[in-house]
Amino acid sequence: MAKISSPTETERCIESLTAVFQKHAGRDGNNSKLSKAKFLILMNTELGAFTKNQKDPGVLDHLMKKLDLDSDGQLDFQEFLNLIGGLAIACHDSFIKSTSSQK
Amino acid sequence: MAKISSPTETERCIESLTAVFQKHAGRDGNNSKLSKAKFLILMNTELGAFTKNQKDPGVLDHLMKKLDLDSDGQLDFQEFLNLIGGLAIACHDSFIKSTSSQK
């Protein structure tokens, strides 16, 4: 029987990002999206380091509008991934800056 | 002094995805990209569950071409994130199908 290896850290992260969306979006029939209220809860509970660092109180409203590409007032999984991607790029850019300035 | 809370699972995953790209892309001066060879190593070591499941031996070549939007023969961090996003969407879709079929 083929040996089933345990998931790598990267595979675990992909599953975890899917699960956190599911946890917050919940399921209304076949429709799995984040309402504005659920988005705000997710931002405060799962991404507090980013959220608490924002000086502008309107930043989450602005972010929701920017992410909600089809303007249906909700975020589907692709729109949620764009949020994660944006935060990862910010994290990556600050890593590049910090290692370049050490030279 | 403000209490620094430990990162959440989602924040840790964002850092981890950034770190795995850095680990494999390495740094040639200010340029942090995945060559084809490094992409193949990453796919086999970090995403083995996906890679070992592919019947078509040419799937990684095809995937690299599809991801390499600017056709420079390398993947930058945004192009790498598109890979992660694609795999997350596949994971999400299979989750939705599996929970719908349980009804």
Helix and strand layout, with pairings?
Two copies of one chain form a homodimer.
Chain A lengths: L8 H17 L8 E2 H11 L1 H4 L7 H9 L6 E2 L1 H25 L2
Antiparallel strand pairs in A: 1-2
Helix pairs in contact in A: 1-2
Question: Would you kindly provide a written description of the structure presented here, covering whatever features stand out?
Answer:
Chain A is mainly alpha-helical and 103 residues long. Chain A is built from 5 helices and 2 strands. In chain A, strands 1-2 form a two-stranded antiparallel ribbon. In chain A, helix 1 packs across helix 2. The mean pLDDT of chain A is 89.
List keywords for this structure.
globular, 2 strands, two-stranded antiparallel sheet, homodimer, 103 residues, mainly alpha
What is the count of β-strands of chain A? 2
Q: Multimeric state of these chains? A: homodimer
Strand order of the largest sheet of chain A: 1-2
Number of helices of chain A: 5
Order of helices and strands of chain A: HEHHHEH
The greatest inter-chain interface is formed by:
A-B, 38 and 38 residues
Tell me the radius of gyration of chain A: 17 Å
How much is the average pLDDT of chain A? 89
Largest sheet of chain A: 2 strands, antiparallel
Label the structural class of chain A. mainly alpha
Per the principal axes of the C-alpha atoms, what is the gross shape of chain A?
globular
Parts with pLDDT < 50 across at least 5 consecutive residues of chain A: none
Give the termini distance of chain A in whole angstroms: 51 Å
Per DSSP, what share of the residues of chain A sits in E-state strands of 2 or more residues?
Answer: under 5%
Helix content of chain A: 55-70%
